[in-house]
Amino acid sequence: MTTPEAAPSAVAPRATVEARTRMSPRKRARISRGIQYGLLVVAVVVLAVSIDWSRVGDQIFNVEAAQDLFPKIPRAFLNTLMYTAAAFAVGLSLGTVLALMKLSSVGVYRWLATIYIEFFRGIPALLVVIAFAYAVPIALGVSISSLTLKAALALGMVSAAYIAETLRAGIEAVPRGQIEAARSLGMSHGRTLLTVVIPQAFRIVLPPMTNEIILLTKDTSLIYLMGLLPTQFDLTKIGRDALSSGSGGGLTGLFVAGIGYLCITIPLGLLARWLEKRTGKGSRS
Question: Where are its TM segments located (predicted)?
Fold first, then answer.
């Protein structure tokens, strides 16, 4: 007597139906992405409908007010670049010394570098700028007449704390074998640092160093607290003056200043990414 085989034939169609109705991972991802795009479009439409465009055009994107600022923009742009370059020069010089002190075998040097780095990384740059503008002349009885020098010292001292940690990481990333090879050739410790370690460390830290320049560029917006002469204004100063002048345009001056900062920071950001890719390719090869 044979056993009926009805059960397997009944299960097979059910499994086929489940396989057809089961959604593939690619299809689920496509649907999820479509939902996200749909929600984004809805949010943009709601925001666009909610904005009072006539008021925005008058108070933020006022073309006439922006045109009135154009004669001042080149000078403000150059001043901003000058303050950034001067502050970075101070920060890089002091940061290199601090990084070497942090890696020194002398305990006092390590402690001094650590205290400096933690102090200036822990307080806002705003307080340092105000201190250089008002507290330092009172405490030391010395008045620095050059705004560029004051800005470079104030922002450079803050930047040095971050640059020191970046350089320290770069120095520690240099292969130990190259240091030992240089010492085996009879090079002194100082010559090994100057000719072998530091050049390679700078190459390693170029991308994060570019990001530090971007941060410094934005920190120059605090220089107005030191008091600016008519020829010393930066991008933030012309934006603030346009806002407080009452000549119309509202926030247009600040918008123009923001565009000016973007013209500096976006190329620097692209340069940082390019250097990061180039450094990565060099390390792999």
Answer: 37-56, 76-101, 113-136, 253-275
